[in-house]
Amino acid sequence: MVLLHADADAFFASVEQRDDPRLRGRPMVVAHEVVACPSYEARALGIHAGMATRMVTRRWPEVLVVGYRGEAYEEASRALFEVFHRYTPLVEPGSIEEAFLDVTDRDRGDPAGMAAALRRTARAEVGLPVSVGVGRTKLMAKLASRRAKPDGLVVVDPDTEARVRPRLHLDDLWGVGPTTYEKLHAAGLFVVSDLYGWDEERLKGVVSTAMARRLLSIAAGTDDATVRLPGPRRSVSATRSLPATRTRSKVAAVLDECIGRAVQRVTGLDDPPRLPARVEVVVRYDDGVQVLQRGALSVPTLDLGALTALSHDLLDRTGFEWDGRGVTMVGLTLPLPVAPTAPPAPTP
DNA sequence: TCTGGGGTCCTAGGACCC
DNA sequence: TCTGGGGTCCTAGGACCC
Fold first, then answer.
1. Distances (CA, A) of A110 to A106, A107, A305
2. Helical H runs in A274-331?
3. One-character DSSP codes across A164-210
4. Which residue ranges form the domains of chain A, and what is each CATH number?
5. How far apart are CA A24 and CA A279, in angstroms?
6. Is A97 annotated in the active site?
7. Strand C: which positions are within 7 A of a protein CB?
8. What string of pLDDT tens digits covers the 348 residues of chain A?
9. In degrees, to the nearest 5, what angle opens at C-alpha A342 toward C-alphas A341 and A345?
């Protein structure tokens, strides 16, 4: 197997720098209330995603701030994936800006050459820097692209893999987050080689069944190398951060704007559109706590009136008005049914 | 200092059925 | 009337990813 993991660097910021020459080579951030994506020049100053925008501009007045342009990023993503598909039909999106590509038997024995060609094409035609990692499994390709950033290429060949794999730290594994690592740590497991000698039954006493299987396959070198084509989108969400507020009308107005955006995106997804049967409304408070409320529509619909009525109901149920904290984010998710029915087969 | 504005997947438990 | 074993579907809640 030869897998590539292609990952655009500082994606939102790179799109902005591409579209506005005045931003190129300068520290800048894509941000609303907080920073969503700093350019590499801004990262060099110590700026990272999640910082309050006001703090950034106060401390680094030379940093330019631009707003979030969702449609521009989606268009750039489409162009990027169009390039990916020239190298193989087997493309599994990881997010708007990254994908696994299975190029087994297509790379003419020169995966590095193919990866370099992909990077050149993305740069020339889409105008974006893309880092690429090459490996035998998804994990290896992913670790390689992480190592390749920014704007680089790293190949993990079998010899390198054999050397590196046992020494991988468990919290560097994709899929192992703080909660899981805490459990592994408590069981005395820190690196991949610590898993040698463990079996599934025993590891299931530490982490969930699925996680135990995944970890043991990583230790055995038989981890996931299957690139899966994307299925239909499972949900669409729209959220928006705002300056901490307790004013009901402000929160409701931002939520209404999110409903509009989400409905538009669902409508653009399929023809005819799939209709949500439920709505989830989320609120984040200024102490960082998030509250989610879910509710069912009486009938699946994209009708703005019905969605707004239910969403406002759910918003009330989050208790945002009376618990004294300010609201710093509000939004909603529309879970979508898997495609209703396949189109009828053509009649012979 | 643990976020933005998006997403996916897993698991537990209840409802319901035979 | 109660118990039991087994299956499926749905939802809530988390963990995790960029």
1. 9, 5, 56
2. 304-317
3. HGGG-BGGGSTT--HHHHHHHHHTT--BGGGGTT--HHHHTTTS-HH
4. 1-167 (3.30.70.270), 168-220 (1.10.150.20), 235-335 (3.30.1490.100)
5. 41
6. no
7. 11-18
8. 999 999 999 999 999 999 999 999 999 999 988 899 999 999 999 999 888 899 999 999 999 999 999 889 999 999 999 999 999 999 999 999 999 999 999 999 999 999 999 999 999 999 999 999 999 999 999 999 999 999 999 999 999 999 999 999 999 999 999 999 999 999 999 999 999 999 999 999 999 999 999 999 999 999 999 999 988 889 999 999 888 888 889 999 999 999 999 999 999 988 889 999 999 999 998 888 888 999 999 889 999 999 999 999 999 888 777 667 889 999 999 999 886 644 444 443
9. 135
The pTM assigned to this predicted structure is 0.89
Nearest to A29 by CA among A77, A58, A67: A67
Residues 63-122 of A with CB under 7 A from strand C: 94-95, 97-98
The one catalytic residue in A41, A92, A97, A98 is A98
The gap between A308 CA and B17 C1' (Å) is 36
Is the Cβ–Cβ distance between A276 and A302 less than 8 Å?
A: yes
Distance B17 C1' – A296 CA (angstroms): 23
Rounded CA gap, A79 and A76, in Å?
Answer: 5
CB A35 within 8 A of CB A21: no
How long is the CA A180 to C1' C3 vector, in angstroms?
40
Other beta carbons less than 10 A from residue A211's beta carbon: 17
